[in-house]
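Quick one - inputs below.
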Amino acid sequence: MNVDWPWPWLPRNVDKIVEATGEHLYLALLPVLFGLIISIPLGWAASRWPGVRLVIVPLAGVLYTIPSLALITLVPLLIGTKIIDPLNVQVPLAIYTIALLVRSVTDALLAVPGEVTAAATAVGFRPTKRFLSVELPLAIPVIVAGLRVAAVSAMSLTAVGALIGIGGLGSLITEGFRRNNAVEMVVAIVLILVIALVIDAFLLLAGKLITPWTRARQGVAK
Amino acid sequence: MNSALNWLFDPAHWSGPTGIPARILEHLGYTALTVLVAAAIAVPLGAVIGHTGRGTFLIAGLSNGLRALPELGLLTLLVLLTYVGLLPVVISLVILALPPILAGTYAGVRNVDRAVVDAAQGMGMRGSTVLWKVELPNALPLILGGIRSATLQVIATATIAAYVALGGLGRFVIDGNNAGAGSPDGYPQMAAGAIVIAVLALVVEGVLEVVQRVAVSPGLRNASTRRRTARIWRKPTPELVGRST
Amino acid sequence: MKRSIAGVATALAATLAVSACGGGGDPLAEDKSTGSGSAGSITIGSANFPESQLLAEIYAQVLESKGVGVTRKFDLGSREKYMDGLKDGSIDLIPEYTGVLLQFFDKQAEQTAPDEVYTALQGVLPDNLTVLDKAEAEDKDAIVVTKETADKWNLKSIEDLVPHCGEVTFGGPPEIQQRPDGIPGFKETYGCTFKAFSALEPGAITTKALLDGTVQAADIFTTDASIEANDLVVLDDPKSNFAAQNVVPLINKDKVNDTVKDALNAVSAKLDTKTLQELNAALNAPDKPEYSDVAKDWLSKAGL
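Output:
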């Protein structure tokens, strides 16, 4: 039995594709954003207090190791959602993002040279302002690198939710699979791929834009 | 939670070709096969690229691109295009496992202390001998790190194989999902399967961590090189490879 | 740097806003509501195979045309899965099949003839649910083999297959391993125990596995277009393991009013097995038409 390639399917179903894409982005990116916001204070705590670090880093490692299908399945058990609930995908994604970024934030903050923080304090920065104006900006390149990985991974991970009925572009993949429609599957795959790469590029660029000093240094070296 | 644990510890579910041990073996089988094939491809490739310094675009490009590829899509499309069986599943899993091993090998070979390479060349070793006898053994920690990452990635993704009629631990999740929440073989089966998957992943990760430490040459464990290799000993950071399942 | 941060933040916010528009709120697949109509509103669900979704779409369109507000929640999975939705009110209406529905509520049910099944069904439904008129159209599970296999072993009915069962890997949806007329039924009614079972989603993948020889027999629904398209052979069921399976709307009692009842009964009156087969064939056409188009076409041809 040959697989069908109904190319006219594409123009006929632009609405459906757009809607699935929107849903996919909602499922994938919101948790990443949320994870980022949570990771910063967590990472700061881990960088400041070795006791916290000793707990958080291994915990992050353990959580990151758990396969997504397992976590997606167990969320209803842990927080009482129904089986078909977008949170079932979003919570694991947030967990993975936090597990990944906490390490980035911790490492990045730990890498800020002691002289820099000392100088900042000497100039008169209060601890909060020092964190926001000096340490955090210096940590941005590493955080952005982690964020890129988290976001791209999230785009692909979200598709797994389709296996238990949680939509997004993954549901186009399962529907195409069911109806022998290779065009539908390819469209979904390519969209996930392309959007993920666009997000990656966007984050890379954004990271460079808000850290002009890293560019300046490169300029001088040349 | 109770019903999940009941399902998990029900002796009926631990025997026979559809029991938990059988599925664990299937799952590990798919994983081992995939990682072996992927390593056979990626280690030589990564070593050559690291040694010659040419073709580095492959490393960055593949790592990035393949991390963004939805495995569910690749696997089901391949099955539809070929047939329902082990081969398309293994092929799609191998594609997934290549980037971490490639990146790890490349990084490992690249990061070998230039002084050591110099010394080897000073001793009269040729290019390929340097690669074989010096760079690769020194690169072993990072290569093993890449294989470790790949293995974990494959264990996670092999759960999807159940969607295309294969075995493995994903079977409990998929079958349980279809049996409906109320049924005793429904959500309890799903949750039990998920717990086994998570535990297996953690156990394998632990075992591989031990293997990685043990396999590192004693010379690299020496105090003076410990600082340099210290960050290698830590689990390869997700920054290197991310995950897609 | 502050300006760049502002710029980046705006771009990010814009992206999130777009995604929220596309999917925010309750992003269940195809959860579109046509609002509350003059004749009330109703949520229609469907199972995870094409025919179910098509029937649900037909119900949806005919109800909308009578002024009922419809919310679609399609592709919910197997019966075992969506029954919870009917019980807790997440969905109100779903197209069903009398025989399997009867067995779902009464595992010991023995009726096989269409009218008996329907009457028995009415007796076992939970308090909040009821069924409307049944259609003549039937779509049964069946054991299907390729023409080659049928020729090789001279197969006309399931009884002919029994001596070969031990060599056969059987393919079907995971839930038939537990269903009374599934794997347990084959054993009890015919004494057939297959060598192995392959869990496959209904639809293209099951047909493919059968044609490729990955499985030698499969559970394919009798109105599936791929049977004719690929010259497959449906084995007869002389001992009636599979009961009658008339299409019938399963609906929440609270949602039944005259408009809904008349509209859906009119659909059932026009639905016979041949029509169902034609509809499936239309769905399976190489250009993969949308469910809504196939439904619309048929409704206008049937004058509904």
